[in-house]
Amino acid sequence: MSLAAGRPYLAIPGPSVMPDAVLQAMHQPAPNIYEGDIVDMVRGMVPDLQRVARTKGKVAIYIANGHGAWEASLANIANPGDRVLVCVTGRFGNGWAEMAEGLGLEVDRLDFGKKTGIDGARLEEALRADSSHSYKAVLFSHVDTATSLRNDPRVLRAALDAAGHPALLMADCIASMGCDEFEMDDWGVDIAMTGSQKGLMVPPGLSFVFVGPKAEEARKSVKRVSRYWDWTPRIDPEAFYQFFGGTAPTHHLFGLRASLDIIHAEGMEQIWHRHATLARAIWAACEAWGADNGALRMNVADPKLRSHAVTALGLGGKNGQALRQWVAQNAGVTLGIGLGMESEEDPRGEGFFRIGHMGHLNAHMVLGMLGTLQAGMTAIGAHIGPGALDAAATVIAEA
């Protein structure tokens, strides 16, 4: 008999759980899009978005998902035939590289695998080898949502500086912004991007590209950018419609305003602390389940390299898929698929799953989700070690 009736819990790495205040803010009639309150509201949101990214740089807002942010960021800094270097730590690094290739850029990949982070020495070596400074940019995922690897932007900035290379440093923060600590200006990132549906707790449909001074300057050498993707009118709009390249996404904006109010009422440092603590609770449970020859394994062994917003896990065989199905059907919890984790032994990635723990999330939600996972693994017959829920509760109690 299913026990899934009631409010469902979406524990995937985006879209994340939306606060009631966000949903309520969106539930209103369409506004005047030419003048009045919404114009003032959007102009007031720009500095609040900058506070999330920790930047004094400008922000371009697109009616798009994260793939749109990928394309916008590249379209404004490189011409067809230009070269970029992509540091790959999972499926989403490859996705951004594929986007660059689709724009006619020459792409070199440095693949660091699915379990370890970016090696600064290896990156520095590749940059020194580019003696003509042909790379326009170095691209990387702050968090790769598929593998749950978290890369330190300071490692990449140090490699660029040590090699004396002028390439832009571009960070995909779609899974991390508003969850993991990120300091765009202080860490020397030239372009950062995110989407509305993860740490910002708004439905999918908006993306944001944060543009530093060096990136603004690079735009001047790009010969042609389509009218829609060109960030020039968006970062310095004279008319309201230029923020969006046309009609404003009104109800997403209402939700975003409510979300930013929630974020800044809590404070970025406290948000980072909350996510880190809840992540440690999840890891403690996962480590206990994997003890005593338990089947569960976290994809990233080193805690310093783990995202605080998503955890990728392997359960062996087809058990990842079986667990996802059981908890959805019997307990109302939705887990993420094992995206990009295919192998010869598991060609469809059915042994993997992901837990999203980002945005509107607190201790009782995490503890309830962990209890549900334990019930599900027990139900499907997966061998797990004891003491997981006690371990997670201890992390919460000692926070």
Please tag this protein with its features.
399 residues; alpha/beta; Aspartate Aminotransferase, domain 1; seven-stranded mixed beta sheet; five-stranded mixed beta sheet; 40% helix
Summarize the structure.
The chain is built from 13 helices and 12 strands. The chain has 399 residues and is α/β, with parallel strands linked by helices. The chain has 2 domains: 139 residues, Alpha-Beta Complex (Aspartate Aminotransferase, domain 1); 235 residues, Aspartate Aminotransferase, domain 2 (3-Layer(aba) Sandwich).
**Average of pLDDT:** 97
The number of distinct structural domains comes to 2
Shape: globular
CATH architecture of the largest domain: 3-Layer(aba) Sandwich
Number of strands: 12
State the distance separating the first and last CA atoms. 37 Å
Largest sheet composition? 7 strands, mixed
| Percentage of β-strand residues | 5-15%
Low-confidence stretches: none
CATH homologous superfamily title of the largest domain: Type I PLP-dependent aspartate aminotransferase-like (Major domain)
Helix content: 25-40%
Q: Determine the structural class based on helices, strands and strand pairing.
A: alpha/beta
CATH class of the largest domain: Alpha Beta
The helix tally amounts to: 13
**Sheet with most strands: strand arrangement:** 2-8-7-6-5-3-4
The string of secondary-structure elements, in order, is EHHEHEHEHEHEEEHHHHEEHEEHH
CATH topology of the largest domain: Aspartate Aminotransferase, domain 2
